[in-house]
Every structure is written in structure tokens, then in C-alpha cells.
Amino acid sequence: MPHAHDHNVRKGTRPRTRDLQELTKSELYDMAAGAGIRGRSTMTRDQLIETLAA
After folding, report:
1. Which of 2, 1, 37, 30 is nearest to 20 (CA)?
2. Entry pTM
3. Three-state SS string across 13-51, please?
């Protein structure tokens, strides 16, 4: 079953900042968790977007 954030992000590609800006902080956090990003629990929404887009 696809996640809400899968509609704009293809597997194997970096999500675009514009696509990430459409997501909630919770969805961004889940993506960061899946990517194994450390420090995500203390990041702001903007920091999560920046980190995921990098």
C-alpha cells in the first residue's frame, strides 16, 4: 500500500524540495526515519526538508 508521500517521490530518486514542502512534519519524520537520518527528532520541519532533499 503506498504512503501519502509516495505520490511525488519515485524510488531511487532524490525527492525535490517542492514535493517535500507538501508533506506534513510527521510524514517528513517518517521519511527521515526510513532513510536512517540521525538527529531527526530534534529537527524542525524546514530542517527535515533540507536534509531529505540533500
Report:
1. 30
2. 0.71
3. CCCCHHHHCCCCHHHHHHHHHHCCCCCHHHCCHHHHHHH
Asked if residue 52 lies in contact with residue 19, where contact means CB atoms within 8 angstroms, the answer is no
HSE, CB side, 13 Å, CA atoms: give it for residue 40. 18
From CA 2, how far away is CA 14, in angstroms rounded?
A: 17
pLDDT digits (tens, 9 = 90+) for 1-32: 444 444 444 455 677 888 999 999 999 999 99
The rounded distance, in Å, linking the Cα atoms of 4 and 43 is 21
In a 13 Å sphere around the CA of 32, the CA atoms on its Cβ side amount to: 26
